[in-house]
Write a structure and sequence with these properties.
Layout lengths: L1 H48 L3 E8 L4 E7 L5 E2 L4 E4 L2 E2 L5 E3 L3 E2 L4 E6 L7 E4 L5 E4 L1
Amino acid sequence: MGFSSVIGFTVIIIGILIAGAYIYTTTESQFNQLYNSLDYFYNHINSKIHEKVVITNVVSTATQTNITIYNNGSTVLDLYKFTILFDGDIVPWSNISVSQHYLAPLSSAKFVINWSQPKRICIISNTGNKYYYG
């Protein structure tokens, strides 16, 4: 009788250890995914807060528009991730040329856009900030 209770106790302890290991690995994996997504979110919000673009000059003809922007923030911006809207329509990148790829803080860049003359211009950065002109 004493031997069977020791075997039963051992089987129960082994089952508890296996279940605990499974729960730990599952919980740790979920925690790592949550931590990575929160880290990405905080970095995105930090970039969004420290971004400040000013549209300084717009020269427009019937078929071409030159837009000069100034980075007044503290982050380096990738201009190829920007979206430009003319009167609510997205301008395709095949019609846009940019003076440089990255825009450092306290510097300017120029977009040359071969598109119809707009009444209202919206530039959307890769963080989602919107800058309007007109």
